[in-house]
Amino acid sequence: MASPSVSFYPAFGAAGVPLGTQLSSYGPPPHAYHPTRALRVSRRHYTPGVDGPTNHIRVPQLLHDDGNIDYASLRDPIRFFREGFPEPGLKLEDIDRSDPVLLFNHADRVLSSVPEKAINVWIKWPGYPARRKRVSTLSGSITREALLSSLCKAVLEWTVEVFRDHPINQTHPEFAIVGRIRPRSMIFITELVHRGSSNWQVELWMPHHSLIFG
């Protein structure tokens, strides 16, 4: 198992990054980039065990950009950690159940400063068209736990839609949904990243291909 920056995280910062962790392991926070940072963000190095679950990879995805991003106003990413566990990310099947896994800082109102009543959540996956899902902010009162639940629902709905509308992933068969990749048991949500205005993008991780294809 890959070792994260520190063996134990006693507390987490406001953006969901464990206090005491070497922030360089995460790369510069999104709001710290210069206007030319779009390329830098897309080339960020993601480390299993630090940015996502061990033995998994971040799903390669283009960053959403509507051409009107005010980079100086981007908000911190909203990260999701299982209570008492240092690696970010929760599996869809652990979120979408009657007794969901306990989430760290689950009651935080993570969108309290967002003025919109609903946000656009973009889901991007190799070989499929980008999809937008609307998620209510509950007038800013939505909690981290409720937000994660809404994201999970959106991703699960998306998997049904892409399998119905695009049963064959012609350009990236290794990323075919419902083929070798079983969404509920294989896909993790690690964070929600602000992409300007009311646009956000969900970060997804999946098992390393060696674990899927052998």
Q: Mind explaining what this structure looks like?
A:
19% of the residues lie in helices and 16% in strands. The protein is built from five helices and seven strands, in the order H-E-E-E-H-E-E-H-H-E-E-H. It is globular, with a radius of gyration of 17 Å.
Characteristic key phrases:
alpha+beta, disordered N terminus, 7 strands, 214 residues, seven-stranded mixed beta sheet, 19% helix
Question: How would you summarize the topology of this molecule?
Answer:
Blueprint: H1 37-42, E1 56-58, E2 78-79, E3 90-91, H2 92-95, E4 118-123, E5 131-136, H3 144-165, H4 183-186, E6 188-194, E7 199-207, H5 209-213
Parallel strand pairs: 4-7
Antiparallel strand pairs: 1-7, 2-6, 3-6, 4-5, 6-7
Number of helices: 5
Distance between the termini: 18 Å
Radius of gyration: 17 Å
Considering DSSP H and I runs of 4 or more, what fraction of the residues is helical? 10-25%
Structural class: alpha+beta
Number of strands: 7
Shape: globular
Major sheet details: 7 strands, mixed
Uncertain segments: 1-43
Give me the strand/helix succession: HEEEHEEHHEEH
Average pLDDT over all residues: 80
User: β content, as a range?
Assistant: 15-25%
